[in-house]
Amino acid sequence: MTQDPLVEIELLVRARYALLLVPSEEFERVDEMLERAAERLSLHYAQWRRASGLRRGRLRGDPIVADTREPVKALAQVPEIGAGLFHFRELGPHLADPEVESHLVETIEYFSSRRGAVVLSGHALNLPDALRRFSATVRLPPPSFDEYRGLLERTIRTYSARQPIRVEITQEERVRLVNNLAGLTLHEAERIVSRRLIEDGALTSHDVALVGAAKQQQVEQDGLLEYTPADAGLGEVAGLAGLKRWLAQRRAIVADPQRALAAGLGFPRGMLLLGVPGCGKSLCAKAVAHEWGLPLLKLDPANLYDKFVGESEKNFKRALATAERLAPIVLFIDELEKAFAAGGTEGDGGLSQRIFGSFLAWLQDRRTDVFVVATANDVSRLPPEFIRKGRFDEIFFVDLPGAEARREVFRIHLARRRQDPAGFGLDALAARAEGFSGAEIEAAVVGALAAAFAADRPLGDADLEAELRRTRPLSATMAEHLSALRTWAAGRTAMAD
Predict the structure, then answer these.
(1) Rounded CA gap, 424 and 432, in Å?
(2) pTM
(3) Residue 93, SS3?
(4) Which residue has the higher pLDDT, 52 or 343?
(5) Which of 70, 180, 215, 343 is least buried, going by the fewest C-beta atoms within 10 A?
């Protein structure tokens, strides 16, 4: 069970931990929690912000200690104020300053015989070695449903006191709106709700969807994760009967997590899909999210190193932290080998290996409801640590589709393009497309339809067969590679089909 952070802070202060780290940017929540802890411990409370300096309390009207905007001067005032909790927001960039380090050491010595502590919040709290052994970290849990609901009610009351506000949502819609706020900080959630109230002086069913869209925009603005439409179910995935059966069994766990937990079953951790390009691995991620009714977020390896070069792996960790606070979700990582190829990326100063280590640790240790769907086309480039159980619930090998699956692929893509599949010889087409991937069959349908359209005639079997004859599938151009891949997968993975 997760320790209540308020109780944890009290215990740490009583145990003479004089330096506490709260890696969170929800400063208002941290302030409120620390003030409550100080009150319960009968201690002074003060907070420091670079813009204003040291304030005796957390409210705007509380007195400010003069000339304490510089961290060193603020730390020097701690003994003058006496035993207490001193919250320093975003001190991280100053921790490399030897003078700041020296004053923190002196403050720790001061609290060795008194109750109290310095609390640092924010990100990038990289402590010097001299301070690390005196510190303890307290994790702030994400806001609860009740906290979001309370924020919604307070915001409505606040704006109702300023102008007429119409609240025209049902109780069910109110619950959906609160659920749409989950994963945001309380400050982010308050801004989104406030905008909806200010815009037209009303809160309606239309605003419920708009809040969800605003949340999506808020998450994507960092460029670390992107929402992906989960608009295709497993019915749109041809073949892969073994994979579908495995997912169906775990759907019951996602649908009723409390009953599953009582039965000793935790939230599914994820799956790694290896195999032939173009055979539906990426489509499976969308289908899982669609079938399970979960948001689908994508972490794109193509943007990974562009984003992180020169910024270190801290942003990658923040992306994973964002995924965790948005849980339950499906997190999709396509072509995993491009991000975490064995040996790393040359010339990156070891950055890729550090990110790889962080990702492995997260895969192993995460406790939140994040189902990871990762795909890879070239298993030889993946570090061996990825391939063992424990990181993922299962590793599936996705091979070229069989005859029945190829027939289904033709049916799906013809129907999607307003063609009646019953008017085509699907069995003959499936036989002619032996060795083709699903993506290659789709491309053949599109090519044949374009040729028929250019000739101003209906699409027919002859057009499709002509397009198939013109196509050299991967099974022919990469026969040796695919053979080696199948040999490797035998006995090491579960077969998706």
Answers:
(1) 13
(2) 0.70
(3) helix
(4) 52
(5) 343
Which residues on neighbouring strands pair with residue 120, listed in sequence order? 21, 88
The pLDDT score that the predictor gives to residue 303 is 63
Count CB neighbours of 47 within 10 A. 26
The phi, psi pair for 7, rounded to 5°, reads -65, -40
Q: How far apart are CA 374 and CA 260, in angstroms?
A: 24
In 110-250, where do the E strands start and end? 117-121, 135-137, 166-168, 202-204, 226-227
Per-residue pLDDT at 354 exceeds 80: no
Cβ-based neighbours of 129, under 8 Å, separated by 6 or more: none
Confidence of residue 37 (pLDDT cuts 50, 70, 90): very high
Residue with tokens 């935790």: 266
- pLDDT above 60 (res 342): no
The two beta strands, 296-298 and 202-204, are unpaired
**Given this model, what pLDDT does residue 1 score?**
41
Higher pLDDT, 15 or 318: 15
Nearest to 494 by CA among 233, 247, 230: 247
Structure tokens given for 205 = 């069913």
275, amino acid identity: G
Cα separation, 448 vs 442, whole angstroms: 10
Euclidean distance between CA atoms 48 and 57, whole angstroms = 10
**CB 201, CB 166: distance < 8 Å:** yes
* Domains present along the chain, CATH in parentheses: 5-137 (3.40.50.300), 145-221 (1.10.8), 234-238+252-398 (3.40.50.300), 403-477 (1.10.8)
At residue 339, what are phi and psi to the nearest 5 degrees?
Answer: -90, -35
Token couple for 488:
């490797």
Let me know: does 6 contact 106? Beta carbons within 8 Å.
no
- Summarize the confidence of residues 475-482 as an average pLDDT: 86
Task: State the Cα–Cα distance between residues 374 and 340, nearest whole angstrom.
Answer: 12
The pLDDT-based confidence of 176 (bands split at 50, 70, 90) is confident
Structural contact between residues 225 and 300, judged by C-beta atoms closer than 8 angstroms = no
Strands 53-55 and 394-398, sheet pairing: unpaired
Phi, psi (deg, nearest 5) at residue 175: -65, -40
Closest CA to 355 of 374, 363, 140: 363
E runs forming strands in 76-116:
84-89
